[in-house]
Write a structure and sequence with these properties.
Layout (H helix, E strand, L loop, with lengths): L14 H15 L4 H14 L3 E2 L11 E7 L2 E7 L2 H4 L3 E7 L4 E4 L6 E2 L2 E3 L2 E4 L12 E9 L6 E5 L18 H4 L12 E4 L7 H9 L6 E10 L4 E3 L5 E4 L2 H17 L7 E7 L16 H9 L5 H9 L2 E5 L2 E2 L21 E4 L10 H14 L3 E4 L12 H8 L2 E6 L1 E3 L6 E4 H16 L6
Parallel strand pairs: 1-2, 4-15, 4-16, 16-20, 17-21, 18-19
Antiparallel strand pairs: 2-3, 3-15, 5-8, 6-7, 7-11, 9-10, 9-12, 13-14, 14-22, 18-20, 21-22
The chain binds zinc ion.
Length: about 450
Amino acid sequence: MVSNGPRRHDESMSNEQNSSVLELQSYLDRSPSPFHAVSNAQNLLLAAGFTEFSERERWTDTLGKYFVIRDGSLFAWDASSKDSFENGFRIIGAHTDSPNLRLKSSQQRSSLSYGQLSIETYGSPLLNSWLDRDLGISGRVILSGGNKEELLFHTNEPVCRIPQLAIHLDRGLNDKGLQLNPQSHLTPIWADSSNGSQSFNDWLGDQLSIATDEISAWDLMLHDTQPSEYLGANKQWIASARIDNLVSCYAAISALCDSADESSEKTPLVCLFNHEEVGSVSSAGASGQFLVGTLERLMNGMTIESRSKAFANSLCLSVDGSHANHPNYPERHDPDHIVHLNRGIVIKRNANQRYATDAIGEAIVKDLCERESIPYQLFSNRNDLSCGSTIGPTTAASLGVRTIDLGVPQLSMHSIRELCGVLDQTYLKLFCSAFFLAETTTS
Ligand code: ZN
């Protein structure tokens, strides 16, 4: 059964909403890699008056609007006074990475007269969705030399493609289903090597306007060059790459920027993590030390009693995509938890702690939604299907802070092109702002 609060903003799209969607689309299109997602969040924070800290330097005063960046992750806060820390933090976490195909370190492959790219699967993409797309290359390139200088790299133009085998050469395909070997069938073509064309490293150097031997290493990946679009008879949906989970990153950062000059007894924080799609175990991931270590630095000088009180009064949102019911596969969903696009944010529950929300967390979200007139829905996986997870459980475990998993519903999760509702991303932004500003108790 769908549990909806009161409906809001269900009239046709207002100008304000239209500009909010355009801003989101710009963020989605300009963030093909986690490094770009962080860089674009950094630009939004700088424009809102935040200042960047270096983790390598001494932090003498952490009060004010600041952020730090670590390898595709970002931590931002707006702290008014250390006394207010004891009132608790309001933490919103999301992830900057998406399942995709990544370039290996050595690029030498060719077959017949085609120059090809050696790739590695990252996370769990729907592999079929990467076939016959016009693909660009993006990520970061590390320069030779002692400083390990990092350049962001992003082609807007398509550079490569994974051509699917024609139906005439695979006649049983539509009966037996598509079988893809990730080593042999997902290798993109990118150059015509018949005349001894440029090496990949030479091409990359040209693109960056640097000598080839200045390139030391890279974290590069492929992305769909098709921009995000409105879709549907009434432009009611957004079709885009990386809806999971850049819609959440954008909502969290926007809410932090918008709330920065408002007064609140709680201290708002946003943490955008890399590596969620591969389990979060890394120096920049949600299971690493980044969140706890940065919080410890913020609370430097506070007594154990004050710090314990701060954590006990804190709340954390783990904001991530949720499955909407699929009209072609109704049997894949729990009949008591039907989720629709454009009918509100989704509170996710799982008794086995694949999602961190408990009954108190669910009640907190329902209460806030009802006060702010934001619709919500409830998700629970079928009991005979294994459930996905998020940064929620690991964040809850490392901080000991009550954590709530929620997010916008979507179709085609982990496809190269996903689909979500225009209204839902508005609801999520409203909810994130209310979470930072409204009075909520932790229990
Ligand atoms: Zn996700």
